[in-house]
Amino acid sequence: MQAWRVHENGEPGEVMRLERTERPTPGDGQVLLRVRAANINFPDALLCRGQYQVRPPLPFTPGVEICGETPDGRRVIANPALPYGGFAEYAVADAAALLPAPEALDDAEAAALHIGYQTGWFGLHRRARLEAGETLLVHAAAGGVGSAAVQLGKAAGATVIGVVGGADKAAVARDLGCDVVVDRRGEDVVAAVKEATGGRGADVIYDPVGGQAYAQSAKVVAFEGRIVVVGFASGSIPSPALNHALVKNYSILGLHWGLYNTKNPKLVQHCHEQLTELAARGAIRPLVSERVPLEEAAAAVQRVADGLTTGRVAVVPTLENGAAA
Question: What is the residue range of 200's domain?
Answer without folding.
Answer: 118-259
